[in-house]
Write a structure and sequence with these properties.
9 helices, 9 strands, 2 domains, Jelly Rolls, alpha+beta, four-stranded antiparallel β-sheet, 264 residues, globular, Arc Repressor Mutant, subunit A
Length: 264
């Protein structure tokens, strides 16, 4: 995976709560990136196959058959681009398949801007330039993930125990969770689960779930007029009071002020 070069945006579409893909299999003339904000889907790109959700970037090379199927209602960014590199006339091979990003806070910020920018006009050159910048930031995060793993003496392949744990947390993040039950289910102690998950993804399982829940809370605050209590229940928390305290501590701003700022 080469970090040198620049992704020149061809198109960007944000799909909100898509229940299924129009075609189970397709191919594209550009590099095509699927970046899920919510929900999960299965995919197969040549020998690369698996499941993906929030925190995963799935990349398909030009002219390659891409099988995909929604496993849960899916909200995702669909980005197509040319890869430009002066060193090899644009032919630098990128990765194919899934790569997971541990910096979910930065990822969520990029997604939020990608959602909001089209409202200012798709034909606006400044908007297009910003979308292209965000696409390249996603790419740089993927490059940094691999650099960190290599420098730490880690292989890019994550142990299947922790892949299973992550998939389970993605599927059940907004319902009642027991880390002890999850550890038992995959044959580890809670300490082994926590340490191994943190080594693989740069955060504990609890931090991972908290990130998913707060990202959903942000989207619901931006896109709906639901009460804080209702949003709390939809994010896996018992009441709005607890969500408000957690949100304020993690985001540095209360949910009500966050909502107000996003609607100015």
């Amino acid at each position: 995976m080469n970090g040198e070069g620049f992704a020149r945006l061809a198109s960007h579409v944000y799909w909100h709560r898509k229940k299924q893909f129009a075609l189970e299999r397709d191919s594209y003339p550009y590099w095509t990136l699927f970046a899920a904000e919510e929900g999960r889907f299965s995919f197969a790109i040549g020998p690369n196959e698996g499941e993906a959700g929030f925190g995963d970037l799935v990349l398909c090379p030009p002219g390659t058959s891409f099988y995909r199927k929604t496993l849960e209602t899916l909200s995702f960014h669909f980005l197509q681009f040319h890869w430009e590199s002066g060193a090899d006339n644009g032919k630098t091979p990128l990765w194919a398949g899934k790569l997971s990003v541990s910096d979910t806070e930065r990822l969520s910020s990029d997604f939020a801007y990608l959602r909001r920018l089209p409202a200012y006009g798709k034909d606006d050159g400044a908007v297009r330039s910003c979308e292209e910048h965000l696409l390249n930031d996603l790419w740089r995060m993927a490059v940094m993930e691999q650099v960190v793993q290599i420098n730490a003496g880690l292989t890019p392949t994550v142990d299947s125990h922790f892949q299973h744990a992550r998939d389970y947390l993605l599927a059940n993040a907004y319902s009642a969770l027991s880390m002890r039950n999850l550890a038992d289910a995959i044959g580890l102690t809670p300490v082994q689960l926590t340490r191994g998950f943190q080594s693989a993804y740069g955060m504990t399982p609890t931090e991972f779930v908290t990130g998913l829940r707060l990202d959903r809370a942000c989207r619901l605050l931006e896109e709906t007029a639901l009460s804080i209590d209702r949003i709390a229940h939809m994010c896996g928390y018992e009441n709005g009071f607890y969500l408000s305290r957690l949100f304020s501590r993690k985001k540095g701003i209360s949910p009500s002020i966050y909502r107000q700022n996003r609607r100015v």
